[in-house]
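Bug report (template v2)

What were you trying to do?
Predict the complex of my protein with 4'-phosphopantetheine.

What happened?
Run completed; filing so the output is reviewed.

Input:
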Amino acid sequence: MKKRIAVYPGSFDPLHNGHQDLIERSLQIFDEVIVAVLRNEEKEPLFSSEERVEMIQEQMEPFSNCRVDRFSGLLVDFVDSVGACCVVRGLRAVSDFEYEFQMALMNKRLNPRIETFFMAPKEDFTYVSSRTVKEVFFLGGNLEGLVPSRVLDRLERRKAQELARA
Ligand code: PNS
């Protein structure tokens, strides 16, 4: 039978526990999940796309059916190029819905073969986003339980680099 491959795309700047939970649960549904990191260096992310890929690779290393890659351009073209059938997205709240619905319909129009599969996050992570993680971190808040410890280490190192540069 044909392998069911899904793509979980995003900026992942940085990966947080809500992302990780969603990746792990989607790995139970699909034969393979490719985490696709958007190359958006022009938006000056905190971590380069290479660093973000590395972080996710380290974290997902125990899962042999999880791959991590970078993409630029249209998501549907990337999905097609890797032979995936599906895009996985997390829906945290009603506020996510409009953007996600628009994106799913646009992607469907661009490539009707590709489905979007929405998953609800684990309740504990419904309010977690990469943006709030960065804000809390740089304001000195506690991120325990919200990001993997490796990601926290990277955040600490990035903060030290920024302080040294200032
Ligand atoms: O985690 P994010 O930042 O919400 O992820 C957004 C992402 C990467 C899924 C989205 O920006 C995307 O698919 N970008 C690629 C460009 C594209 O295909 N646009 C057409 C769909 S509207």
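What did the reviewer find?
The helical segments are 17-27, 49-60, 75-81, 94-110, 130-138, 149-165. The pocket of 4'-phosphopantetheine is lined by residues 9-11, 38, 74-75, 103, 106-107 (CB under 6 Å).
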